[in-house]
Amino acid sequence: MSYVKYLFVLIIFAFIISSGIHIFSKGFLLTRDSRTEKRQCDKFYVKLDENYCISDSDNKKACSNQNVFEIVSNISSSAENLCFEKKSKVIIVLIDALKFEFGVFNEKLNDPLPYQNKLPIIHELLKKHPDNSRFMKFIADPPTTTLQRLKGITTGSLPTFIDMGSNFATPEINEDNIIDQMVANNLTVVFAGDNTWTELFPKRFKRSYAYPSFNIHDLDSVDNAIMKILPTELKKPDWDVIITHFLGVDHCGHKHGALHHEMSRKLTEMNDMIKMLAESIDEDTTLFVFGDHGMTLPSGDHGGATSDETDALLFAYSKKKFVDGHLGHDDDFMQQIDLTPTLSTILGIPIPFSNLGTINFKLLPDVSYKGIKRHELLSMHLWHNAKQIKNYFSTYSDEHKDIFAHEDLDRINTKFEIFELRISTIFNEEAFKSVSKDLRLTLDSMLELCRNIWINFNPQLMVQGMLLSFLGIFVLFIIIYNIPVSEFSNIFTKKLLVYQAWASVIAVNIGYVMHENFGWDNKIIAALFLGSICHVLFFGYIIIKNWTTIVESMMSADKFINLMSRMSFAFSIAVFFSNSFIVQEQYILCFLLIVQIIHALHEYRKAASFVDMKKLKITGLFQTTSSKVVIVAIITIGLLRMSQMFFKCREEQGNCWDFLANTENVAKVKDGNMKVFPVIILAIFVTIVRAFLKANGNLTGYSPHVILMKFGPTVSVVAACGYLVLSQKQMTRPIASFVHLDTLAWIVYGMFIIELIIFVISPLLVYILPRRDGSFSLSDASNAIPELYRHMKQVINDQTANKSQTPVVYGLATVYSSVFLAFGTVLSIVLALLLGIDVCNGFVIILFVGSGILFIFSILRYESSSSIEECFHPSFSLIVTWYLLYSYGFYSTSHQPTISQIDWNAAFVGRTANFDHSNILSAILVLLSTFNSNVVLLILYPLLVIGPFMIYALWPNMPIKSDKKAKEDTALNYRKISLNDDSESNKDMKSVSRGEINLHENENIFMTSVFKVGCQFLLLQGTKVFASMIACTILCRHLMVWKIFAPRFIYEGIATYISFVAIVLGFVLVMRINRSVKSLINKLIL
Amino acid sequence: MYWISTTERVKLNYAMTTVAAIVVYTFFVQFVPQKLWLSVLFFIVGECLKVFIVQKLYKLDTTNNMEGVLKRRRNNKVMESLKFGFVMSLTVFFFAFICIILGAPALEKYLETFTLSALLTGITLFPISLFIGVSGTISILMTESFDLSNVTAQAFLKLLKRNAYLVIFGAFIGSVVFPLDWDRPWQIYPIPNIVGAVTGQMLGSFYCLVETMVKHKLGKKQH
Lengths: 1086, 223
What we know:
Chain A is elongated. Chain A is of the alpha/beta class. In chain A, the strands form four sheets. Chain A has an eight-stranded mixed beta sheet, sandwiched between helices. Chain A has a four-stranded mixed beta sheet with strand order 4-3-2-5. In chain A, strands 1-8 form a two-stranded parallel ribbon. Among the domains of chain A are: 242 residues, Alkaline Phosphatase, subunit A, CATH 3.40.720.10; 479 residues, no CATH class. Chain A is built from 40 helices and 16 strands. By secondary structure, chain B is mostly helical. In chain B, α1 runs antiparallel to α8. Chain A: One of its GO terms (biological process) is GPI anchor biosynthetic process. Chain A: InterPro entries: Alkaline_phosphatase_core_sf, Phosphodiest/P_Trfase, PIG-O_N, PIGG/GPI7_C, PIGO/GPI13.
């Protein structure tokens, strides 16, 4: 009988749910490719005689004798790459969360609120010098969090959640930005304040005074430190730009809210500071005071998109006059991204490549150059800006064909051609005003286009994705839980599946070709959607066909079974709906796991009547099965608690520095000693597995896999340990050459590859003792498990009696599990190597905990099952526990679902000497190390089915059930031994467990059980990721969506893909082993 | 005159006294970490009183089917009370152990852990032990097949057992609020668990009240 159809069904369900995730993420995760191009421009000087000089980017000065008029008369071609001289120096005072209302002065207020009328200096300066000061609303793009805002202000682009191509490991900005441009153009930048800046722009500032911003309860220390530095810095002559970032107001908002009296104190301090600056700046300096975002009233939070949060304040003051208001915008508000080109223009540097903002002329100091009229100067600036935006827009749309609609692109191109003519024909200020107005409208429409693709969700795709996942999960649930296991081979007929495959292929093609007719923009999404829907329809047909069975089993099902496991599961997916639960998820999972184990103990107590009071003896207490279970449970729980040592914390947990480990400014606190202890644990782990295999007789003989398992893991672990120990100090002080280190890593990889190959060729770890006539030495038997030992004795007895030809096979009792263990061990060593020395023990702990759980639940299942079908199928609580364990493994191996905390080191294991720059290989290595527990535990999931048979093969003498119960159970005949059908002679072995040969004899039930368990894992994982999708949809305007919910969804989505692959792989392994076992048994019987 | 059966009266009596005790408790409870031991004291005294009242009024017979096995010597009061104290403190340590493996800080909050586990012992195992004695309690824990021969006593024991389950469940559910970042004073470690435990006990009482009433009504209809 072929089980390929089960495999096929597994893959289809995985496909449906995965395409749901994919479609959802296309609608939810807004991505933007960050461009790394830097813009350059030629410096343009006007000499006294109205001739000009141009120095290009290499600082080569080329002066011509031509008049400036040459340039000015040909703006459309000349202005694009020209930068003027610096108009003034700039002081930027960024006051975090300076809301617009804070600056509005209302004299009539008798009883001002704590935040009102606290910045009178703005009002004073506006009144006294209306031409020298500007005050306006400064509108931010959501998300209104400081980091995103800083990115927006410095690059002039719309920040999205994932800026593809940017470096995840550090928050450093790699897009073109004004700070980089300042440095490139030899301007001196001084910084004081929030250390977010130095993380974004490391090593850019001539002098930087950065202070940590974590402590929200600290209102003053950062501000006071800046205030101490500022006056001395002002006096120094060398700076061109000073940037200060005050945190007090923001922290006050977070801690006390906007209506607290502390707020008025902080604002008054800010007022004094602005006053001091306004008095002390010289003629040649422009002062900008602004907030990066607002805050809600009265709670003082920010992050969302309400006008309270987006409307910040901008105040500019200069001793020089600004350009007349009527030449620029008449509005009293500006977009935050408009500040980028404005600052660039003031400082005479090129506008950053990906800027989308337009220059606000009201904020330009009115500097004139000889021979250039004001409207000419402004139109040159404007054209420089417009060409830059057009350039970015074209580059981006060339790269991503489908992103913008063709009509829009055509319209913009036509308009620009017209503007190119118009810009050169400006002859006076009135003409400039009209051209400028039209050009601005076009630029705004381009900004709007970008905003649509980078800021707005696509609800259609999100709904479709959720719908698909839901349908997949729902159909899977109905089929798996309501149709008896024995029916599976009848309902999934080969014919139906073939039809299904062809139908879906047709549906995929229809979707791919005719996607526009169905309203999709994207071919692949249409194909995925239609293909999946087609599969769902076919499964729907199966449901309808088996409707009576399903309804009957639904009606008869006990509504309250597995209450505890269901609650644990429900709780583990409810985590997605609260940010604080996501932040603390590691502890929650640990808690649930321990609860599951305790509950299993409780169940065991019920099933096996813990201690027989009538026969209780203290001496025998530690030999009973119950005491073994309790001891294993305590050790397992202890290990789980220990694994918390390997947690990495995240920013939101408070008092946490782990998330900064990647950036340079936190010195790594490391003890000088090499870490050796983890390596020992790793070696012990491998030794235990080997001892287990040896005790079961799986390491006897000369088959290729046996030989590999004899030496492979040992070699592999030695190489891995060598690598782990040596690479600790390699970075600081090379010990071995990189090539040698890499060789060690490649030995481990190679061993895994050999294992894979051998697995395909001949997976079994058994040894058939050659039949001899009457004489063979018993000394070999020291390796065999006791039952086989006895079996051999039996054989000898038989041989002396009637010369029967009973075959002797080593390792037959663990024929399935041994292969899984072997494979799992080699894979685990690879993963431990990838995880590195600090973390690999967390992984080993997970493996130990996994075996502990397997032990407890296997015994529980064996004790409580009343028929062989029941014993074959793992209980729901075991599946939930396994699921919790692999979810927990992510955290216990020092991972956190935040974008900045991806562990990139794994990508370089074994590739340091000559890095091949293969992104696919790097991605595989990083994914393997990040989702290690998903990979290992789900590939090994068939062990859950094999479990009881494995345990009782290992300890055949384990006391089995209390006598009373054993008598009641008439269905216990599956314990009887019947290797050969004429087992009448083996009556004395009746009580001995036969190990995993049972599995082969009930091959059909076994494979169906494995299939069902696989489906259950698909179901659990699918439900989990579906919950994550719902949470993201409900909370898509939540404050923390980009910081907590969306990264969690991404991690869960990737984990789901990987889990599905692992489940399918696990099933393939079982199929392969099963086939080999079948041929082995056939060989034996013949 | 007694149209309510004794079993029902025992149940109602216990449920009413429990609810009354919790109502009294709400009047002077202070969720200040330093004063939590007062709650423990209150509940231990309360349980004593409740079981005492029930025993005084109905004089339930607590002979059980394990009589022969347990070899109880009722006459030795000193030994019995020593054993009682030993088992109770063992239970406290057991609960503390469970608290710690489920995530309570092992060392720095040991007083709180102790308070919580004392409270849990006080409203789960303590009344049961008061009612049927220590040996009976142990055999309940170890085997499933412990029965009292008196029907009313058995019903009362069942009620106590269910209450104990609900209390533990409530304390377990109480942990839900810990991860929330609300920074409320009542989120400090043992308070949600204590509230959960007390809530569990109260729910148990209410359930018992309703159950008794419904069953009584059904019983009357049948007649």
